[in-house]
């Protein structure tokens, strides 16, 4: 057995930033992916980006310092390759490109600000084929802080994919319009009208937390009633109690209900009765 190949990745999202260290073991058959470490920095770029369309100087400095720290750890890990991607918040912020250029100058780290289509493609590349069955329709729902990526799949092939500017942080900040919802509803109904029966696949930290609260294991399925009931149980708890009594992260406690509404709407519009949660990100 080989010692393995080391890789790193940085995900700069709207609600948090993550640094992943993974070792890939190749031993004759399919490669095995071992998550050696995942570091999460709860810096909410989406608040500034969606409300003010610019990252404030205070948040920008925290972002730069985080990138310095991430780069130091990558250098120590010595991966074969690494990639850094930024999504909706950095796409929206007027000074996003300026911050990316500053990070490159100060650390040597090159950050790609990817579009919604590329974001969806990266999500689909995360080995979800293990969840898919042949000759079956699926709608893949990935809810982030700033956007939701929807992908229609049949027989393990992508039929259609689209990114929508509807995310948990955007909803929290009141930056999602009725037109945004109408566009998503129309797309889902149009693309799934002849796909019944269809099953949903849910990804994102919020659906993972909902599944955990239900006592579900990795890869288990949820139905609409279970999601609705869980959100109803969460609703009476204020922000403080969600953290202390329900064990939520502070940056999860105020957005989980908003994210839940996105999953529920997509299930309703697509006609999917169940959603499998593979807990990949």
UniProtKB/TrEMBL annotation:
<dbReference type="Pfam" id="PF02541">
    <property type="entry name" value="Ppx-GppA"/>
</dbReference>
<dbReference type="InterPro" id="IPR043129">
    <property type="entry name" value="ATPase_NBD"/>
</dbReference>
<protein>
    <recommendedName>
        <fullName>Ppx/GppA phosphatase N-terminal domain-containing protein</fullName>
    </recommendedName>
</protein>
<dbReference type="InterPro" id="IPR050273">
    <property type="entry name" value="GppA/Ppx_hydrolase"/>
</dbReference>
<dbReference type="InterPro" id="IPR003695">
    <property type="entry name" value="Ppx_GppA_N"/>
</dbReference>
<feature type="domain" description="Ppx/GppA phosphatase N-terminal">
    <location>
        <begin position="44"/>
        <end position="268"/>
    </location>
</feature>
<dbReference type="GO" id="GO:0016462">
    <property type="term" value="F:pyrophosphatase activity"/>
</dbReference>
């Amino acid at each position: 057995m080989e010692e393995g190949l080391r890789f790193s990745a940085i995900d700069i999202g709207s609600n948090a930033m993550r640094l992943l260290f993974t070792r890939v073991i190749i031993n004759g058959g399919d490669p095995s992916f071992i998550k050696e470490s995942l570091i999460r920095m709860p810096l909410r770029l989406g608040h500034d980006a969606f409300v003010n369309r610019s990252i404030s100087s205070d948040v920008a400095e925290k972002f730069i310092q985080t990138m310095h720290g991430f780069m130091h750890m990558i250098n120590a890990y010595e991966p074969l390759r690494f990639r850094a991607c930024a999504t909706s918040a950095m796409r929206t912020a007027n000074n996003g490109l300026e911050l990316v250029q500053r990070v490159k100058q100060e650390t040597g780290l090159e950050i790609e600000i990817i579009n919604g289509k590329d974001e969806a493609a990266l999500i689909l590349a995360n080995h979800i084929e293990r969840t898919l069955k042949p000759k079956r329709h699926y709608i893949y729902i990935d809810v982030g802080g700033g956007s939701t990526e929807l992908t229609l799949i049949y027989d393990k092939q992508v039929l259609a994919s689209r990114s929508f500017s509807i995310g948990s942080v955007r909803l929290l900040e009141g930056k999602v319009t009725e037109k945004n919802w109408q566009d998503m509803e129309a797309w889902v109904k149009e693309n799934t009208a002849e796909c019944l029966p269809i099953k949903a696949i849910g990804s994102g930290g919020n659906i993972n937390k909902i599944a955990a609260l239900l006592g579900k294991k990795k890869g288990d399925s949820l139905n609409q009633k279970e999601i609705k009931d869980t959100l109803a149980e969460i609703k009476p708890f204020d922000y403080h109690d969600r953290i202390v009594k329900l064990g939520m992260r502070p940056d999860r406690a105020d957005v989980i209900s908003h994210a839940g509404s996105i999953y529920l709407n997509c299930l309703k519009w697509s006609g999917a009765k169940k959603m499998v949660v593979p807990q990949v990100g």
